[in-house]
């Protein structure tokens, strides 16, 4: 444990250099907030570590498997689980680091994802929003417990979270941030190829429909490029659901999802029969359950409180003008909406275990929050503009009366 604490302090010093880099590029960047978030994240590293010692955990399997691996390191290079083995191997095998120290390293990787999340929100939405007329919305989003818990351990959660948030951060200025975009794309693709596919489709549709400066020729070119990329990675995407050699993808996918859903519903004692649910109920289950009435254990109760907050936040967009907002929204908002819905839709067909749902949805919920945050910020901005015009008009009326 002493080595883990020492490494956490060393990484704290490394963070200061990273903060300085971003502070020079983004004047709004709050070093104090990011330091608070780092120590907050470490609480979840410790929580997850204690939890893993007393419960089944993929993190222990990753550690044991890579530590016992006797083959060549490069042979581990691949997608999905093997990519996590590939990243973990130097730490567990070459450096012979204990489990708790490797957990710190991967928790830090997850924390880096929160840095990009923070910049992504603040850079694109400079207007501050109060939730419940009192609490800073962005502050709440940065400190959501479930998001930190599943990104604070050795596993896919921390790595893909960093990849996704690097990807969306770079989309603000892809020409200048091409290296960040490339690294984020590679990370996301190698951890979950199907999620990368959703990101590409979402980004493509978002920018083609949300950027009025793009000509039709550029849109056609981007569409062709997007289709070409999807063709290149189709084998990896289909392999995720064991359909790499399928001759009837639709039929075989239906069989896979039925089998997968049944298997997950029987696992860990927290299954739900989502296969029999209508689609709206499936989506609601993925986004907002467990709630207090079906919470699996103490962790489930904590997550239920957070899910209730998600539900309250989601009610903010149940307004008549939301559809028109989406139609006129900028590219990043459209992209977030598409990625959120497509990923959620895909997950609902294979998720039937509340414990797994709690973990998997941490990848996509920030996309929903970004859409909601932008919607609320735009409404606030319009109110501010309207108020300024009204104040200006009243001031002019007072001046005219004074002159008369």
From TrEMBL:
Taxonomic superkingdom: Bacteria
Bilayer-spanning residue ranges: 36-53, 97-121, 142-171, 191-208, 220-241, 297-319, 331-351, 357-376
Keywords of this entry: Membrane, Transmembrane, Transmembrane helix
Name recorded for this polypeptide: Uncharacterized protein
Lineage, broadest ranks: Bacteria, Pseudomonadati, Bacteroidota, Flavobacteriia, Flavobacteriales
């Amino acid at each position: 444990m002493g080595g883990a604490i020492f490494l956490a302090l060393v990484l704290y010093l490394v963070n200061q250099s990273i903060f300085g880099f971003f502070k020079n590029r983004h004047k709004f960047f709050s070093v104090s907030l990011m330091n608070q978030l780092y120590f907050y994240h470490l609480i979840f590293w410790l929580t997850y570590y204690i939890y893993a010692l007393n419960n089944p955990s993929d993190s222990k399997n990753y550690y044991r498997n890579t530590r016992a691996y006797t083959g060549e390191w490069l042979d581990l290079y691949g997608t999905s689980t093997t990519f996590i083995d590939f990243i973990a191997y130097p730490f567990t095998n070459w450096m012979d680091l204990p489990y708790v120290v490797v957990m710190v390293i991967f928790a830090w990787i997850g924390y880096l994802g929160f840095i990009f999340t923070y910049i992504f929100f603040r850079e694109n939405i400079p207007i501050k929003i109060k939730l419940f007329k009192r609490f800073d919305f962005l502050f709440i989003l940065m400190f959501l417990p479930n998001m930190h818990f599943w990104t604070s351990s050795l596993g896919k959660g921390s790595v893909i979270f960093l990849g996704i948030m690097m990807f969306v951060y770079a989309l603000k200025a892809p020409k200048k941030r091409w290296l960040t975009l490339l690294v984020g794309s590679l990370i996301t693709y190698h951890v979950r190829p199907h999620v990368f596919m959703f990101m590409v489709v979402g980004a493509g549709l978002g920018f083609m429909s949300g950027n009025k400066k793009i000509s039709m020729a550029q849109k056609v070119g981007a569409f062709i490029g997007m289709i070409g990329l999807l063709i290149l990675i189709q084998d990896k995407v289909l392999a995720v659901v064991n359909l790499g050699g399928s001759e009837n993808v639709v039929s075989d996918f239906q069989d896979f999802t039925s089998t997968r859903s049944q298997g997950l519903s029987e696992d860990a004692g927290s299954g739900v029969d989502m296969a029999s649910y209508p689609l709206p109920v499936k989506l609601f289950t993925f986004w907002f359950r467990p709630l207090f009435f079906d919470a699996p254990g103490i962790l489930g109760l904590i997550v239920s409180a957070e899910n209730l907050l998600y539900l309250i936040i989601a009610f903010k967009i149940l307004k008549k003008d939301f559809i028109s907002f989406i139609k006129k929204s900028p590219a990043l908002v459209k992209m977030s909406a598409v990625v959120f819905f497509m990923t959620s839709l895909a997950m609902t067909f294979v998720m039937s275990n509340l414990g797994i749902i709690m973990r998997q949805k941490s990848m996509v919920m920030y996309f929903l929050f970004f859409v909601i945050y932008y919607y609320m910020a735009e409404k606030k901005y319009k109110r501010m503009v309207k108020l300024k015009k009204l104040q200006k008009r009243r001031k002019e009326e007072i001046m005219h009366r004074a002159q008369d």
